[in-house]
Amino acid sequence: MHMTTAEIREAFLEYFRKEGHEVVPSSSLVPHNDPTLLFTNAGMNQFKDCFLGAEQRSYVRATSAQRCVRAGGKHNDLENVGFTARHHTFFEMLGNFSFGDYFKHDAIRYAWTFLTEVLQLPKEKLCVTVYQSDDEAYDIWAKEIGVAPENIIRIGDKPGKPAYTSDNFWQMGDTGPCGPCTEIFYDHGEGIWGGRPGTPEEDGDRFIEIWNIVFMQFNRHADGTMEPLPKPSVDTGMGIERVAAIMQGGHSNYDIDVFQRLIKAAAEVTGATDLDNKSLRVVADHIRSCAYLIVDGVMPSNEGRGYVLRRIIRRAIRHGRKLGATDTFFYKLVGELADVMGSAAVELKQQQAMVEKVLKIEEENFARTLDRGIALLTDALDSLAGKELDGETVFKLYDTFGFPADLTNDVARERGFTIDEAGFEAAMEAQRQRAREAGQFSADYSKVLTIEGSTIFTGYDRDQDSAVIQ
Ligand code: ATP
Ligand code: MG
Ligand code: MG
Ligand code: MG
């Protein structure tokens, strides 16, 4: 059976709605209830207080298609983009949640029914993991669902490490709700590098994790003891792009409808001809995170969330140059993005002009130093004796040319080099020290522009011209 990404989203929400779940809209990428979290990175974020019992809602079961960004903080997949078939900076997580209502039996049955009956995935392609000591989940899979024992893999703790380092044990923080997970994997078949979960080759792209089901079963206290929760809960997450890859007969997420259209659009605006070029995937990935972050109120800046956004934009622009773009191109993808994201693009459509403007200005600004920075970096790499680029050069690229360190690293990595991150940090610290001694604040030429009543732009790097939109 073939399904579009939009059809999968609809089918998922509809399946869980029929099973008594409230369909809850995606929340913002900027978490409103958790200052410790850089960006929303899972469907459960917006329900955190429901799980903690601090918030009561009119429902005890919910389902959502949550926009997520994993480009910093605890989950950072930025470096994976373009290298694996399955990681994005921005993706949609489909999830179902039980707030002290159903638990393991129903959660596992729902997931299995959705995959094998609604999506009609062949059972023999699926395998599951459970946490080492979670006999209850093991027995549900083996006896109630009928998964063959060789396809149920117990995953333990990492050697010498505490439980939460296991892929199959989840916790909200050092204290609070925690518990075992069960994950469902799809085997994309021989010929693709990778091994079953729990083997040394598991990080390959053959067995791809599609769904994680977390059982919030315990409350961990500060002294490390774990007390069973009186009303255990369920939190699940399934990446829509990974499922779409399967439902559309492909392997890589970049083969799916949404990405193919973005990749074609990116090829058009950059002049690239080889649609398999890795940089096209990077650009197609990055336009999604950048556009949605701006929609959710993040603006390019030199710190915090804004700097993560700036870093992603600059990376995309660098890849665009590599593809042959000679002029600003990135903002031109916003329209296509708004078209392909369907019901997930309501806010993006409303704010399209603003998003384009922010991206365009950011690109024009970076374009002034990009070529000279690339020339300097190329020379430095050409004349490198060893394999590591020194921290001073990385710092100079940052300070004078506006190259975030991860961008420099991205270029270096393409040529088999690494960068001296510690040396870069030391150079940064030395600069901060100089600034402190000179009694300055770290200069900030931020300006705020108001267009049609909404604040849309805060200015530029201290190292760039203090360009301001007029
Ligand atoms: P992986 O091990 O593949 O990195 P994960 O264990 O980090 O995934 P979870 O935190 O369990 O992922 O998130 C739930 C689901 O969200 C995953 O099973 C996967 O389908 C999807 N997902 C996670 N990270 C990404 C990403 N960077 N891009 C696309 N989908 C993702
Ligand atoms: Mg991960
Ligand atoms: Mg995983
Ligand atoms: Mg997981």
TrEMBL record:
Record field: catalytic activity: tRNA(Ala) + L-alanine + ATP = L-alanyl-tRNA(Ala) + AMP + diphosphate
Needed cofactors: Zn(2+)
EC class name: ligase
Subcellular location as annotated: Cytoplasm
Keywords carried by this UniProt record: Aminoacyl-tRNA synthetase, ATP-binding, Coiled coil, Cytoplasm, Ligase, Metal-binding, Nucleotide-binding, Protein biosynthesis, RNA-binding, tRNA-binding, Zinc
UniProt domain Alanyl-transfer RNA synthetases family profile: residue ranges: 3-470
Primary site of residence: cytoplasm
Enzyme Commission identifier(s): 6.1.1.7
GO MF entry, a single one: ligase activity
Free-text remark on how the cofactor is bound: Binds 1 zinc ion per subunit.
Family under the similarity heading: Belongs to the class-II aminoacyl-tRNA synthetase family.
Domain notes: Consists of three domains; the N-terminal catalytic domain, the editing domain and the C-terminal C-Ala domain. The editing domain removes incorrectly charged amino acids, while the C-Ala domain, along with tRNA(Ala), serves as a bridge to cooperatively bring together the editing and aminoacylation centers thus stimulating deacylation of misacylated tRNAs.
Function in brief: Catalyzes the attachment of alanine to tRNA(Ala) in a two-step reaction: alanine is first activated by ATP to form Ala-AMP and then transferred to the acceptor end of tRNA(Ala). Also edits incorrectly charged Ser-tRNA(Ala) and Gly-tRNA(Ala) via its editing domain.
UniProt-recorded name of the protein: Alanine--tRNA ligase
Species: Ferrimonas gelatinilytica
Native organism taxonomy: Bacteria, Pseudomonadati, Pseudomonadota, Gammaproteobacteria, Alteromonadales
Name of the encoding gene: alaS
Shown residues within the full chain: 1 to 470 of 874
